[in-house]
Design brief:
The complex is a heterotrimer of chains A (90), B (417) and C (953). Chain A is mainly β. Helices cover 9% and strands 37% of the residues of chain A. Chain B is built from 12 helices and 19 strands. The chains are: A mainly beta (90), B alpha/beta (417), C alpha+beta (953).
């Protein structure tokens, strides 16, 4: 069970309090109607899924309820950093 | 290839078993092949075998970064069934099921396919509706699947708890009698041996580090830790690592890789005659030929390649097992392990051509790839040989994520309302 | 035979004799004995049979590494446990143990025929045969193989014991209370660290327990630790797995050693999060590989010393030592000093350290340097050994009844490896030792490769003049894997150690290769002609030793497996005979049968009552979300398919929610209470999912919107009053709300009080009748329900359940998301075009509706279905075809999603998803069932009161 630092609570807590929420920094397009099917598919489905440094979202569901971003190594599962939603990509 | 039989076993025994040859030679890479399969699991080795056997392409290399069958082939709970809902899925998995039947004889290698029956438990009204839908669709597709009452389910699998006051009572079950299990490793080894006998090079400890593409965009070969290997036809069957390999060809894929755990108990005398699955309670179990209870656990929630799962997943899995089979509470977990499953947005595989000429893919099997092994191998081979998908795997194309023609079995099972 | 118990020595309590039975024979031991030590004390050497060859086996080790001596213990109904290591079973008065995997008896086991046929059953034999004739596999071969499989019997009764779990946090966790672990704890006791010291045995001490010279130190140290307030010592506790971020799983065994299992927990799972971990797991002695190394009486030298010093048991009356390591000499010296006769010391090395020779001479022991045991005599017990010079010459026979093996030591790096710490190969130890850590952890003592009992020679197998292909020299004792099996695997091309393991099954037994892995590696290394490091190492996997399912499941059983959510009205339903159904985590009343009624009759009665007078229904499980803020309407407008901004306060609207992929995920009627406040409802199962989805969009896509979301599902009890008399019943109870049709029309909400309790009163209907949904604070739910029942008696008020609710809504053409839709259905497929805001530039899921295959013709669409025979009620899930005579596989057009007997209409009704369904109105389709083909006509979905006349009254 991972230990996760919530950047809002500034606490390191057990994974059971958190819900994973997929890859980070995939913003919903401003004007979906203007997008091609191809590009819309990328937004909906295509994911980096890297072996290594991964930008991802978590929600402190059983805590403050906030969504935040994290960088985690998918080979070691170790977190490099967590940061608040809306902050630039680390 | 030395033919395996009771007679050859007897004959070799007299010679102290000194006379057995290597089941497949450990080949060194040659400069070029007519086709390359990336990934030496059951699917990839199967593809190589069928390329050589059915489609006459014998100048084939299987490239494996570690040891054959070391990925999901050797880490899964070996459940085989084909009672899927949608026509596309039913045809795909039933194609595989038909190949399982007789595979031992075809490969001259006992894969220990055991038609023990796969029973899926219904715990609420919604499950019943969903299972009936499967059963009726399967019947009209020619796939066996039948409804059992709770009492019939108990008769088929005596350790089952059908007490009506259970937290998740068993209200009935869907049974596919042709479903069952096989011995996972032997599938990889059997294909490897049979493919090698037809001229396929099996190359282990050789990691692909790049995919070389020509000026026209078509593949020219693979860069590996053992040098460049040329081929105009490359089939990628790399399971959890598919995203990584596809990226080498410049392709981003709708895939994510998650940790999946499984575990076995200490071996006990035969007590569990079939495979039981409960999607509602999240429990999957069978008993192996060796006597171990083989139990599938769930995936962790996050993307990972660590092959290391969390304890609370195991706790939940065993709680679910003990709930349905309370007599096993004193059994003991012997070994647990993790694998990496590559999951698509609709949890159905991608099997076919890619936007890159000469590059073919077989991935996205999620938690259910083992059962498809012979079928996936055969269809990947067909697609590579003909440069077009077989009608069975045509719907499992990459384009469906653009057009919206998803094949979403899990969504079809829906959620409680 | 008797007299193996030595006078005086040992840590057992000789003042407390204990009677126990093994295979029906009653023996006596002492408190402090294990089953293994007590049986050895009684001269019982034969404790089990091996897995494959059914070879007679005794005790190999003295601890959790034991591969051979597995027994079943039974202690009353439901308390049967197979596959326990006799070396870990503490005896108590009345202990009842039995041997396993033998028939008819341990001494005469017919399964041992496999041993005679062993030459035909090498590794992987089953891959090579049982294929012909094909039909025999299912009927003959496989059942036969399975019958042979397994060790003990499985339990057959429900376990009456309880298990629990706890979380613990500490600054320092020390695993292993041997000298190194105790030293680490003593050091930490002087700090302010919170320390947990875990040990798997019944008393702390580890290796020190077998060394009387250390006992005074041990006693003193344990006193100090007990006095230290910051140290917790857990005995009988196995740290079995090392998980992410210093999370360690451990199981404490609380009652198995007690004569009468107490009422408390049998085992407790400890989930420990540690700041730092010190692993002091020690090392395990390695057997030597030679013919007959598995005969009962051949055991690890260190185990013999443990039996001597801990339990006061001599493992034989005349004992020989086969050594490749100095430590074995020390062990046999201890035996000799205790008065045990020594048949001789055989050491494969040509020379050993002088002090050993000197001590052996002083003790008068015969020494055979440069010799190896090449055969062991005896079948059920050792009778003697044949030894030979390593060059093969000059065989000699020694009479003995026990043979000790000292093959060197393997550091226990199991938990270290779980933590993904790396390992380094040490040639001089012939073992892997911890290298780089991956977590905050370090190894101390023998598990780090440091010990003080000398050195040895690392070898794959003892030299023998016999043909290695013709002898059974065991590597993995339990799984009967011999050296020749491993060589065969290599010969057949299995070159990775993972392949060798899987082909031969070495290291896959219940001891997980604790004594066999390194020998297997050495043999493979020789056979391959490659250094050990080039062959790889199999992965160490949790658990360290097998752990009970019950302990891992903990308290999560029966009602506590997953809590059942119940509404505040649930108790009334239970008292009034409701039949329940499970919906997501809730249980809901499905119908309320009166005496003699089946579901059909009850539902028909309930339906009639709602249509004729008034019905009452507990709708509290509906998900509820309070949406508040100046941008609330804008937010809902972006989330839902339909427009929300123009909705007047006091009005309700049906909302349809898609996922971004365009498929329906939820729906519900929601009300606008004020310009900045909405009361949303969701499906019962969808509440948490919808709230999470909304939070996701709100927090991360549109953080500029000023909106707050609060789950209020459990705050409101919701009672639906439905039927033409609903208003009559309600009116006298409500104040502050004008219930008239003009003041309070359909799809409106008003706030006021009912029976003095604040209420949000919805004028909504899921039945097609005049209806109200009364929201009151949850605590008042039952009181209000009872009041309505009492006052409603005059109107024939009838409680109804979910089944009637389903029928009534189907008569009106209302869908249920999750039943009539399944995650692949768009609003257009569901015929809900009217709920899609055409003028809205965007909403969640809108773009996906324009994808080619979503916009294409021929998609499955929701329609009504009326069977030609009105009495035929279709089966939900039944498949629909155009031509029932076609060959299999048939082309299926869709399936029946909902189907009921409509008491109101006096016929069956159904919904179905049918390809191009909305263009097939009036068409006859076929539903082929196993016994008949049902024909039905495609219809619209509103079967009852299409004009809605009954609603607006």
């Amino acid at each position: 069970m991972l230990l996760i630092h919530c950047p809002y609570c500034d606490e390191q807590r057990a994974e059971l309090e958190f819900a994973y929420a997929g890859e980070a920094h995939i913003a919903r397009p401003d004007d979906p109607a203007a997008m091609s099917d191809e590009d819309w598919q990328y937004y909906l489905f295509v994911r980096a899924n890297p072996r290594g440094r991964h930008h991802e979202r978590w929600r402190h569901t059983h805590g403050c309820g906030r969504f935040f971003n994290a960088v985690r190594d998918t080979l070691s599962d170790k977190f490099e950093v967590t940061y608040k939603a809306g902050e630039p990509r680390r | 290839m030395t033919r395996f039989s009771a007679f050859s076993l007897f004959a070799k025994a007299l010679g102290g078993h000194q006379g057995w040859p290597e089941q497949w030679p450990d080949a060194a890479p040659r400069p070029a092949y007519d086709a390359i399969i990336v990934g030496g699991g059951g699917h990839g080795l199967g593809a190589a075998y069928y390329l050589a056997k059915k489609y006459g392409i014998t100048n084939v290399a299987v490239i494996e970064k570690g040891w054959l069958g070391g990925g999901n082939t050797g880490r899964n709970t070996t459940i085989i069934r084909s009672n899927y809902l949608y026509d596309e899925s039913a045809h795909l998995y039933d194609h595989a099921l038909k190949l399982w039947d007789g595979l031992s004889q075809e490969l001259n290698y006992n894969t220990m396919y055991s038609k023990r029956g796969v029973m899926m438990l219904a715990h609420n009204v919604h499950d019943i509706q969903s299972f009936k839908r499967h059963i009726h669709a399967n019947r009209l597709n020619g796939v066996d699947n039948e409804w059992l009452s709770a009492e019939e389910a108990k008769a088929y699998c005596p350790p089952l708890n059908i007490a009506p006051d259970a937290r998740y009572p068993v209200l009935g079950a869907a049974l596919q009698r042709r479903g069952g299990t096989a011995r996972h490793d032997t599938v990889a080894w059997g294909y490897a041996r049979a493919a090698a006998a037809l001229g396929v090079d099996i190359i282990q400890n050789c990691a692909v580090t790049g995919i070389r593409r020509g000026a026209d965009g078509a593949v020219e070969g693979v860069e590996t830790t053992r040098g460049f290997i040329a081929s105009k036809r490359i089939g990628v069957s790399a399971a959890g690592h598919s995203s990584v390999i596809m990226k080498m060809a410049g392709l981003d894929f709708p895939l994510e890789s998650y940790p999946l755990q499984a575990l076995v108990s200490e071996p006990v005398k035969p007590v569990f005659p079939c495979v039981v699955m409960s999607n509602t309670v999240h429990a999957y179990m069978s008993q192996s030929d060796k006597g171990e209870l083989v139990i599938g656990a769930g995936t962790d929630q996050y993307v990972s390649y660590s092959q290391r799962g969390a304890l609370h997943i195991v706790e939940h899995t065993l709680a679910a097992i003990c709930e349905i089979f309370p007599i096993f509470r004193r059994m003991r977990m012997l070994r647990s392990w993790g694998g990496i499953v590559d999951v698509t947005p609709d949890r159905s595989p991608i099997l076919g051509k890619t936007p890159v000429k000469g590059l073919y893919v077989n991935c996205g099997w999620g938690t259910g790839g083992f059962k498809a092994t012979p079928g996936a191998g055969d269809l990947l081979a067909y697609t590579m040989a003909k440069d077009e998908p077989h009608p069975i795997n045509a719907p499992f194309n990459l384009d469906r994520f653009r057009t919206g023609r998803l094949i979403d079995e899990a969504a079809a099972a829906a959620v409680a309302h | 035979m008797s007299g193996f118990r030595l006078p005086q020595c040992g840590r057992i309590d000789r003042s407390r004799p204990v009677s126990f039975s093994f295979d029906g024979t009653v023996y006596q031991g002492y408190a402090g004995d294990t089953l293994a030590s007590a049986l050895l004390a009684n001269g019982v050497m034969l404790l089990g049979r091996s897995f494959k060859y059914h070879r007679p086996r005794g005790v190999l080790g003295a601890g959790s590494e034991e591969p051979n001596a597995l027994v079943s213990v039974t202690r009353g109904p439901g308390r049967f446990t197979p596959n326990l290591r006799a070396t870990g079973v503490e005896i108590y008065g009345g202990l009842t143990a039995s041997s396993q995997n033998r028939w008819p008896s341990l001494k005469t086991d017919l399964g041992a025929i496999n041993d005679r046929l062993g030459m035909f059953l090498p590794a992987g034999f089953y891959n090579k045969t049982f294929m012909w004739p094909r039909s025999f596999w299912e009927r003959l071969y496989e059942p036969a193989i399975r019958r042979m499989a397994g060790l003990g019997e499985a339990p057959t009764e429900i376990d009456p014991d309880h298990y629990g779990a706890t979380y613990a946090h500490c600054d320092l966790l020390i695993v292993g209370a041997g000298p190194a672990g105790i030293d680490a704890a003593l050091e930490a006791s002087a700090t302010s660290k919170r320390v947990i010291l875990i040990d798997e045995q019944d008393e702390p001490g580890g290796g020190a327990l077998a060394d009387p010279a250390l006992w005074p130190w041990l006693e003193e140290s344990l006193k100090d630790l007990a006095a230290a307030p910051n140290i917790t010592v857990l005995s009988r506790t196995t740290a079995f797995g090392y998980y992410h971020d210093n999370f360690i799983g451990a199981v404490e065994r609380l009652t198995d050693h007690l004569p009468h299992p107490a009422a408390g927990l049998r085992e407790k799972l400890w989930r420990i999060r540690a700041g730092e971990v010190i692993l002091a797991q020690g090392a395990i002695e390695r057997p030597l590989v030679f013919a007959g190394n598995d005969v009962p009486g051949v055991m690890l030298a260190s185990a013999a010393r443990t039996f001597l010093h801990r339990y006061g048991v001599a493992v034989g009356k005349r004992v020989a030592l086969m050594a490749a390591h100095d430590s074995g000499w020390l062990d046999i010296f201890a035996l000799a000093r205790a008065g045990v006769a020594v048949a001789g010391i055989i050491d494969v090395r040509e020379s050993v350290a002088a002090p050993l020779l000197t001590e052996a001479e002083q003790l008068g022991l015969t020494i055979h340097l440069g010799h190896s045991v090449i055969d062991v005599h005896g079948r059920l017990a050792v009778k003697g050994v044949t030894i030979a010079r390593n060059n093969g010459a000059a065989a000699a026979r020694l009479a003995c009844d026990a043979l000790l093996m000292a093959g060197g030591w393997t550091p226990s790096v199991h938990l270290w490896s779980h933590s993904k710490g790396s390992l380094a190969w040490r040639d001089e130890l012939g073992a892997y030792v911890p290298d780089r850590a991956n977590e905050q952890t370090r190894c101390v003592g023998a598990c780090s490769g440091k010990w003080n009992f000398g050195s040895g020679l690392v070898l794959d197998a003892l030299p023998t003049p016999r043909d290695p292909a013709r002898i059974k020299a065991f590597v993995d004792f339990q799984n009967d894997v011999t050296a020749r099996d491993i060589r065969l695997a290599v010969r057949e091309g299995f070159k990775s150690i993972e392949h060798i393991k899987r082909y031969t099954t070495t290291g896959m037994a219940t001891d997980q290769g604790k004594t066999s892995n390194l020998n297997g590696l050495q043999i493979a290394s020789t056979a391959l002609g490659l250094p050990v490091v080039d062959i790889g190492l199999t992965t160490f996997r949790p658990p360290y030793t097998p752990q009970t399912f019950g302990a891992l499941a903990g308290h999560a059983k029966d009602a506590l497996f997953q809590p059942t959510r119940k509404t505040t009205i649930d108790g009334w339903a239970e008292e009034n005979g409701a039949v329940f159904e499970l919906v997501a985590q809730w249980r809901r009343a499905r119908y309320f049968p009166k005496a003699g009624e089946d579901m059909h009759a009850a539902v028909n009665r309930e339906c009639r009552a709602v249509r004729a007078s008034v019905g009452i229904f507990d709708a509290s499980t509906l998900g509820k979300i309070e949406v508040v803020g100046p941008d609330a309407a804008e937010f809902l407008n972006r989330m839902y398919t339909n427009p929300w901004k123009a909705l007047e306060p006091g009005r309700c609207r049906y909302g349809l929610l898609l996922k971004e992929d365009g498929f329906i995920t939820d729906d519900g009627v929601s009300a606008r209470l004020a310009p900045d406040r909405f009361h949303l409802t969701t499906t019962t199962g969808g509440a948490a999912r919808v709230l999470n989805m909304m939070e996701d969009y709100l927090q991360t896509e549109w953080p500029d919107l000023n909106v707050w979301l609060t789950s209020t599902t459990e705050q409101w009890a919701v009672i639906a009053l439905q039927g033409p008399l609903a208003r009559k019943l309600l009116e006298p109870l409500v104040s502050g709300i004008d219930l008239s049709e003009q003041a309070f029309p359909h799809m409106a909400i008003r706030e006021g009080t009912i029976c003095g309790v604040p209420t949000r009163l919805f004028r909504v209907s899921f039945t097609g009748e005049l209806g109200f949904e009364i929201n009151v604070p949850a605590a008042y739910g039952r009181a209000l329900w009872e009041r309505l029942m009492a006052d409603g008696a005059a109107y024939d008020i009838t409680p109804y359940g979910t089944e009637t609710m389903h029928v009534l809504r189907a008569e009106k053409g209302f869908i249920i998301v999750g039943q009539d839709t399944d995650g692949t259905v768009t609003p257009y497929d569901a015929g809900l075009d009217w709920a899609v805001g055409k003028k809205k530039p965007d909403f969640v899921g809108k773009r996906s509706l324009a994808r080619p295959d979503i916009a294409a013709a021929g998609r499955k669409q929701l329609v009504g279905l009326l069977t030609d025979d009105p009495a035929d009620v279709l089966e939900e899930g039944a498949q629909i075809v155009a031509d029932p005579a076609q060959a299999i596989p048939m082309t299926m057009l869709g399936h029946v999603t909902s189907s009921y007997w409509s008491e109101t209409l006096g016929r069956s009704i159904a919904f179905a998803l049918v390809a191009g369904g909305q263009g097939r109105l009036g068409e006859t389709l076929h539903i082929p069932m196993p016994d008949k083909v049902v024909t039905a006509k495609v219809s619209g979905m509103v079967f009852y009161d299409p004009a809605g006349a009954r609603l607006n009254v």
